[in-house]
Design goal:
Number of strands: 8
Radius of gyration: 17 Å
CATH topology: TIM Barrel
Structural class: alpha/beta
Helix content: 25-40%
Shape: globular
CATH architecture: Alpha-Beta Barrel
CATH superfamily: Aldolase class I
Strand order of the largest sheet: 1-2-3-4-5-6-7-8
Distance between the termini: 35 Å
Number of helices: 8
Largest sheet: 8 strands, mixed
Length: 230
């Protein structure tokens, strides 16, 4: 059963060219130590569920005012019910955006094939060499991430990559290696770590604005669509 753990009733930023809401699903297969949504990752920190009926009643009340729904987490692709969930949203007339860590390429491929997603945002945690460390998984299978990234770059569905950068886990060389790996013209956002007060674990810090600009220029050498998100 899908566990709905949060609802942002209005966002003008998360879904390009859409007035949208964001629904947050609980649970994640990563343990990124700098994650800013620990209460969506760790079951012991979960709050009460929002019922599916309550969520879809909300969507019904916003028809004509909202045009999109962002499905975020946690990691939504953990739920085998996700296709049904997205289909129900689309039948109400909403466009759908999926936020994912890319570790379930089969689910992602199926959602694209069934036209259940209109936009995808995939997190790129770090260079391939440091992916497991950054995702908090010693046995991470990087080939699954590579498959999802390759799928998005070929599938024709609008998408973006994004990397949240913190001083302790990301170096200039890491950013360069990400660029070499995903070289192209796609949308790619670098965003600075921010301490939300709900961090999974450890002490992490942000780069300065000037340092972020330098990292952006490095990435832009390889990915023409790279931007800074503030």
């Amino acid at each position: 059963m899908i566990k709905i753990k949060g609802l942002q009733k209005l966002t003008l930023l998360d879904f390009p060219e859409r007035i949208a809401c964001t629904v947050f699903l609980g649970g994640c297969n990563f343990r990124c130590p700098f994650c800013h949504n620990a209460s969506l990752v760790l079951p012991e920190r979960f709050g009460e569920d929002i019922t599916e009926d309550g969520f879809f009643d909300f969507l019904a009340s916003r028809q004509g005012r909202l045009s999109g729904v962002c499905v975020s987490g946690g990691e939504p692709t953990l739920y085998r019910e996700l296709p049904y969930f997205l289909e129900k949203i689309k039948k109400m007339g909403y466009a759908t955006k999926l936020d994912t860590n890319g570790y379930n390429p089969k689910m992602l491929e199926d959602l694209i094939a069934e036209r259940l997603v209109d936009y995808v945002a995939m997190d790129i945690k770090n260079s391939r060499e440091r992916y497991g460390e950054t995702a908090g998984l010693a046995a991470l299978d990087i080939s699954l991430i590579e498959k999802s990234a390759e799928l998005l770059m070929k599938c024709g569905v609008p998408f973006e990559f994004r990397t949240t950068v913190c001083r302790e886990l990301h170096t200039e060389e890491d950013i360069r290696k990400i660029g070499e790996w995903l070289r192209g013209e796609e949308k790619f956002y670098l965003q600075s770590f921010k301490n939300s007060g709900d961090i999974l674990g450890g002490d992490f810090s942000a780069y300065s604005d000037e340092e972020m600009k330098k990292l952006h220029l490095i990435l832009k050498e390889y990915i023409r669509g790279a931007s800074l998100r503030v």
